[in-house]
Amino acid sequence: MATLELHSIVKRFKDNTVLDDVSLAVDDGEILVLFGPSGAGKTVLLRLIAGVLDADAGRIVIDGEDMTGVDAEFRGVGMAFQNFALFPHMDAFANIATPLEARKTPRDAVRAGVESVARLLKIDHVLTHRPRALSNGQKQRTALARALVGSPPVLLLDDPLRNVDAKLRFEMRLELPRLLADRGATVIYVTQDYKEAMALGDRIAVMGQAGIRQIGTPEEIYLQPAGLDIARLFGDPTINLLDVRPSRDGQGIHVALSGTRVELPAAMEPSVGRACVAGLRPETLHFVKAGTKGAVPVTIEAETPLNEKTVTLARTRGGREILVSRPAGTPGPDHGEAFLAVDAGSVLMFDKASGERIAAGGPAAPRKRATA
Amino acid sequence: MEHTSLIERILRGIALALVVVFFMFPLLWIFLMSFQTNETILSIPPQLFFTPTLQNYTALITGKLTSAAGTLDIAFMRNLWNSVFLSVTSVAVSLLLGVPAAYAFARHKFRGSEDIAFTLLSFRFAPPLLVLLPLTLYFQQLGLANTYFGLVWVYQLICLPLILWIVRGYFEDISADVEYAYRIAGHSWFATFRKIALPLAGPGIAAAGLLAFIFAWNNFVFALVLASADKQPVTVGALAFVTASGIQYGQIAAAIVLSIAPTLALALYAQRYLVEGLSLGAVKG
Amino acid sequence: MKAAQLALSGVDKFYGPVDRGVHAVKSLTMQLDEGEIVALLGSSGCGKTSTLRMIAGFEAVSRGTISVAGKPVHELPPVRRNVAMAFEGYSLYPPLTVRENIAFALKAARLSQAEVDAKVNEIAKLLEIEDILQRYPSSISGGQQQRASLGRALVRSASLHLLDEPMGQLEPQLRAVLRGRIKHFIKERGLTAILVTHDQTEANALADRIAVMEGGVLQQFDTPTVIKEKPANLFTGTFVGEPPMNVFAADATLEGGRVRLDLPQGVSLTYPESEFAPQVRDRLRALRQVVIGVRPYAVRRTTDGVAASVATNQWLGDQTHIAADFAGGTIVLVEHDRARVGIGDTIGIGIQPRHLHIFDAATGEAVVHGMELA
């Protein structure tokens, strides 16, 4: 129902520049995830949009209207806070009703509005409870209901699932897309959890170094990260990073891993002869039989199951650690020696000095899991 | 570990009992004195058993002080009323001024805000005698001496800093996000102050008000210098019991009982708030 | 059979007077073999931390016995139990550097300086804290403090290593590799370790066996595989596993050579009777009211399955989580490829009988796993 534009936003706290020349445009009805480590300025950016903090420079435009300097109560945004920020002296009903009451909504309409959003979020049975008497999950849903109830055109969600347990977080992660889509709101969603970012975002803006490092669809961020730092933030287990120096001979471009020659696609041309870091996602590595062409010999150190996956910690001949993940229940190697096949098409190559990805020409390679 | 031995518990009980006796004995003794005549009070050895008399209280209420030298008019009930009026009005004015100021100091950090807040607090540190002489001169010139208005004004020196600092601590304890949430919901800053900040700081405001009331009630020096007999509170009025013909211990005791009764009752009633208010606001600030 | 490295026998813990206070741990009996890693898993207030504190000696045992390496220890003070512990709240000694913190117990054990240095350097490398060894606890991050605390516990030689929520604060990028290294470290040295955690992912990753606790009662004590494939009751089944097990109330009927499970909103699953062992059929016939559970990875999309409308499709890079409206609730599927289904699409839900868990609706006890009696 609204677009949101940020133009060259600057925000400083004393001598610390938290946001430096940040510009961003969010489409009508889009869910944009602000993702990054704590201290990256995500929450500050959200508060600038909400109008509870003022930017030192730059403009904030909501639906074509310049909102820079406009007080929070006139911006028409909804916001849910990480710590819920419920009003402790009001019951859940009164908490949720506050945005409607601000607009002098008739009492019947307030009741109807609160009850319908409470039913949607499955908290209609605790509306008479004060926040103190609510469970963490119910608090979080109450906070969300308060943000949603007025159907604000712009919805700001500040890590709303941070303070609930893993099970509730998972449940909400599945529920949220439909809830948000039904409201049609333009959403800015802040999180530190890459899974939430990938699951919920139409686009993800990765924050770092007082600005936006990369912005793109989950696919772009995961498959074509702009740099090492971004590649490391996405994926569990974390991407394997190995120092390599690709070279070329008559048979093509290749690197040496654990004393074995691993062929790389022709698109890796720009990396030849440079000090590079190869990024190998754990799920693109597969255990294969001894003697398979291009198989890298490794020693198995430990196997740790991880949520429907099995993660293996292996060590190369050169003593480097490699994490390999495979779907739980699929056969894996025995302890001791094993061999790994590297899916050359999915190798990410970064410049060692700058950490930036060395653009591999052509589209992202199709990702298909070979069976071990 | 979590078990304590029997001996430990007994010893702790004895220690606590000693502390209680040490602090409560004077109060108890005064309470007993107030029902005795001057003769029984001054008899040696002191009598533990005596025929209680209400004559001290009658003397106070009727305003006729009887001593060996004869009868003297005193304005004790008038003084008591003055105390109530001065304390209540001062605290009310302080709350009216101090609570919004405390909110401003807690929420809006501006250049010099710390300095202003600290200057206000320093009024509490300054010895009253230091300001008394110039104050008396000003008040006489301005015609404020010996008026309730002037006294209430001066009492702000006692009440305002106390309320400001305790309540500010309470406001700072309210998560700013809670207030932001109310603003974003579409309410003005004033509505946020009224509907969110005030109710949440309620216990702190009550504690601060109570404490300020006790301090105002107990004040002696300002009232001694700036008020004449008809505006004096009980603390000053009690001086009248020291007469040329001797000290009327029984009547003093009764006067003390009457004058501490309201504050004692208030303090007992709101003990929990007081402790909370002091530890949350003043210590932190 | 080897002697148990740690044995708890009929251990009770009451806060307040025995038999009248809060009953935090209820007649807990369990044994750990030497060289085993065991996780005490449960939500807060389940009794796992009380148990750990009783083993360490910070908390008195109300009833029962605890022995370490065959020797009763429950009346000994903590220092005489030969137990090393990593605390949840890091608890490093603030006036000592990270290096001194880790070396503390080694020096107390009168190791030579060279030995101390070698051990500290090894564990520091493993936990990636080499560059902060000279720093003081107050100047390092929470994750680093936790790694230092873990190092201090692991570096000691002790009969038993207790790790209280050892990885909760760790930087997410380090978690997977550190889990692997720590498991390797413990196994290589044959240490016996107890890990207390509320995070079932952690428990599954590190432990040889998991003790699931709830309400002070040990619910199940078995290997991660058995707990996943044969949960003893509904609690264990839904607590362990992420995404959690899908559960639905169902009516079981047997007629015409078929087993029929009626779920809410007219959804029914039918299987040939021959798929289930005869004893299973008898139990189902007797029970009727059941709860069925199926793990998300076991739910398949099939053309002949029960129709369900896709509510969301979330790709996480290496897994896809699909939620679909099913039987008045939501059913979750996990696929390891990228699934190309859109919101609102109709998919067929297939649940094979060998993936079915059936619980008694009244007691929550497991009745059937796969086609066999639990």
From TrEMBL, chain A:
A GO MF term: ATP binding
Keywords, comma-separated and alphabetical: ATP-binding, Cell membrane, Membrane, Nucleotide-binding, Translocase, Transport
UniProt domain ABC transporter: residue ranges: 4-234
Origin superkingdom: Bacteria
Transmembrane segments: none
Keyword field contains Membrane: yes
Residues in the signal sequence: none
Family: Belongs to the ABC transporter superfamily.
This protein's name: ABC transporter ATP-binding protein
Species whose genome carries this gene: Ollibium composti
Lineage: Bacteria, Pseudomonadati, Pseudomonadota, Alphaproteobacteria, Hyphomicrobiales
TrEMBL record, chain B:
Compartment(s) where it occurs, according to its Swiss-Prot or TrEMBL record: Cell membrane
Coiled coil (UniProt feature): none
Ranges that cross the membrane: 12-32, 84-106, 118-139, 145-167, 204-229, 249-270
InterPro entries reported in the protein's UniProt record: BP-dep_ABC_trans_perm (IPR050901), MetI-like (IPR000515), MetI-like_sf (IPR035906)
Keyword Cell wall biogenesis/degradation: no
Keywords in alphabetical order: Cell membrane, Membrane, Transmembrane, Transmembrane helix, Transport
Domain ABC transmembrane type-1: 80-270
Family the entry assigns: Belongs to the binding-protein-dependent transport system permease family.
Protein name: Carbohydrate ABC transporter permease
Organism: Ollibium composti
UniProtKB/TrEMBL annotation, chain C:
InterPro entries: AAA+_ATPase (IPR003593), ABC_transporter-like_ATP-bd (IPR003439), ABC_transporter-like_CS (IPR017871), ABC_transpr_FbpC (IPR015853), ABC_transpr_MalK/UgpC-like (IPR047641), Mo/tungstate-bd_C_term_dom (IPR008995), NA-bd_OB-fold (IPR012340), P-loop_NTPase (IPR027417)
Keywords associated with the record: ATP-binding, Cell membrane, Membrane, Nucleotide-binding, Translocase, Transport
Domain of life: Bacteria
Pfam family, one: ABC_tran
Record-annotated ABC transporter domain positions: 6-240
SUPFAM superfamilies tied to this protein: MOP-like, P-loop containing nucleoside triphosphate hydrolases
Name of the protein: ABC transporter ATP-binding protein
Molecular-function GO terms, alphabetical: ATP binding
Family affiliation: Belongs to the ABC transporter superfamily.
Keyword Membrane: yes
CDD domains recorded: ABC_Carb_Solutes_like
